[in-house]
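I have been asked to look over a protein record a colleague put together. What it holds is a sequence and that sequence's fold in token form. Please read both lines and tell me whether the tokens look consistent with the sequence. I do not need a full report, just your reasoning and any doubts. This is what I was given:
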Amino acid sequence: MGFLESIKACLSKYAQFNGRASRPEFWYFFLALFIYFMVAGFLLGIAGVSDEVFDLATLVLLIPIFIPAISVSARRLHDINQSGWMQCIFIPGFVADEFLGTGYVIYVLTLALYVFWFSQAGKKGKNRFGAQPRK
């Protein structure tokens, strides 16, 4: 699956949380999101907006891609035979960080866990979440 095909697949499955997503579908979508936010940040920086406007613009830019990002993550976890709810594992980290003041340690550990999970090869053939996605 190529870059544009992956973006199209993720956006066409906007809020589809069932099924499976291949590694290329997931990683190309997040590469597109990275480019999306880098270009937006660059343009906002050139415009010289204040921090408050920058934060508001980031929130506005996040709204249309929030649900597709969660759904493709759930489908990617399904591909490795994990529940899509496993992506909520970061929530205790946010709460603990507020009380413990650990800085970015918990966030970095959670990110490392995500990268590990999402980089795993999917289960061959059919699993409890459906047929193996095409590459």
